[in-house]
Design goal:
About 40% of the residues lie in helices and about 10% in strands. It is of the alpha/beta class. α14 crosses α15. The chain is globular, with a radius of gyration of 22 Å.
Length: about 425
């Protein structure tokens, strides 16, 4: 019998306070600093059998839109953001099976520091940590770390290639079984199984070995969001799971097929990397209720275009406040997130900015609006057409209510169709990712 199950992850956008303007948020403006909400949420995702929760991050306050921080601060757009490594440690301590994937930028951490930090998290979580590897895209972020700005897009990926090579060598500097335990008076650690790295690259140098010891998984899980050609090549070479955002099942299939072909050219087994597509389900007890929610969302964005444009400005480094909403948008280029810009404009060149915003407001690789059973059916049909590997859920209104709608409404509907796991088969993150 063919295993129809696919993987589920959660793309968590930084801070619970960012749902402050939504219904059912409680006293979030008072309680956002403390971890209870994220801990409770992650426990529920684990109860529902999710593979992982990815902690999205940025390390600066946006000011790309209108050359001002005001819209970002007044509307809580990607601010405040707590350090994802600290949050990851708290979530790992309070769970036992789900994977935890903090986002850390290659421009912000020396390779040794990152390898030691992620390796330590993998140890304290008993093998459940991943790293969402990002190269960065904002000059504002670079300047927070003493850099003049971000290197050119493709150069960032060249540098990240060397960075990843070094980090993986550091994780491999301890062989399995290096710590023998000093049984019967023997050595605690076998020196022959701990190796210097002596890495000499164009951008990075490191002596090694790590002093933190071996990782339970050997190599922690690598997550990456590769949309541009350079990003796809990087993801195909290094990633164990890919964050993908493409519109429509045909484009999803084309993306997955492309990445798998690239993996094969690198000598990797394509089945060892799981491509998860971003979706934003809108659920209701009835289809009419779900559609009403969708209409309210659309009306909000239509009435407040500056909020959506401010977010787009932040990720693309383009000041969309300079453009007339009702004039055709011309050709644009960016040193920021190229895939985000391409998705926004897509095949719609020549349309007005206001028209483009209508399509951009329909978030997710496929539109999922309806009852849990209707949405589960559409997710299954899309995966059958695409070929795998699963979905990464992200919600604008991440509240206890919206999380419960997923974990206690949508997931059981998926499980009844044999599309989602009911139990974890393994203790460690990588093993569960490769279970089907």
């Amino acid at each position: 019998m063919t295993d129809k199950r696919f993987h589920l992850g959660w793309f968590l956008q930084g801070s619970s306070i960012q749902s402050w303007g939504e219904e059912w948020t409680g006293n979030v403006a008072e309680t956002w600093m403390r971890p209870e909400f994220f801990v409770e949420m992650t426990r529920n995702l684990e109860r529902a059998g999710f593979d992982y929760v990815l902690l999205e991050d940025s390390s600066y306050v946006g000011e790309s839109y209108g050359s001002s921080r005001d819209v970002y601060l007044e509307n809580g757009i990607a601010v405040p953001r707590q350090d994802p490594a600290v949050v990851a440690g708290l979530l790992a301590r309070e769970t036992s099976r789900i994977g935890i994937v903090p986002t850390l930028g290659t421009f912000a951490y020396p390779p040794y520091l990152l390898a030691r930090l992620i390796g330590t998290l993998d140890q304290v979580s008993a093998g459940r940590i991943g790293w969402n590897a990002v190269t960065g895209s904002s000059d504002y972020a670079a300047q927070n770390f003493g850099l003049p700005g971000m290197p050119e897009h493709d150069l960032r990926y060249e540098m990240a290639e060397e960075y990843m090579d070094l980090v993986r060598q550091l994780w491999g500097s301890w062989e399995p079984g290096a710590i023998t335990g000093g049984i019967e008076g023997g050595a605690l650690i076998d020196p022959s199984k701990v190796h210097a790295v002596n890495f000499e690259g164009r951008w990075f140098r490191c002596r090694g070995p790590l002093n933190s010891g071996p990782c339970p998984q050997g190599q922690p899980v690598i997550a990456q969001a590769g949309g541009s050609p350079a990003g796809r090549a990087f993801a195909a070479k290094w990633a164990d799971t890919i964050v993908a955002s493409t519109k429509g099942a045909k484009a999803m299939k084309a993306y997955r097929d492309d990445v798998r072909e690239r993996m094969a050219r690198f000598g990797r087994n394509p089945d060892h990397c799981k491509v998860l597509f971003l979706v934003s389900p809108i659920l209701g007890a009835t289809e009419e209720e779900a559609l009403a929610r969708q209409r309210r969302n659309a009306e909000f964005h239509a009435d407040n275009p500056h909020i959506r444009l401010a977010h787009l400005s932040k990720v693309t480094n383009i000041d969309f406040a300079e453009f007339d909403l009702d004039r055709p948008l011309g050709e644009l280029r960016t040193n920021g997130h190229q895939q985000s810009l391409e998705q926004f404009i897509g095949k719609n060149r020549g349309r007005t900015l206001r028209e483009l915003l209508v399509d951009y407001a329909r978030t997710g690789s496929i539109e999922l609006v309806g009852t849990p059973d209707q949405v589960a059916e559409r997710m299954g049909a899309a995966m059958e057409e695409v070929g795998g590997d699963g979905f990464l859920l992200t919600l604008a209104d991440t509240t206890r209510r919206s999380v419960a709608e997923i974990t206690d409404g949508l997931v059981p509907a998926l499980q009844r169709r044999g599309l989602a796991r009911r139990h974890y088969a393994h203790d460690q993150f990588r093993d569960n990712l490769l279970a089907f």
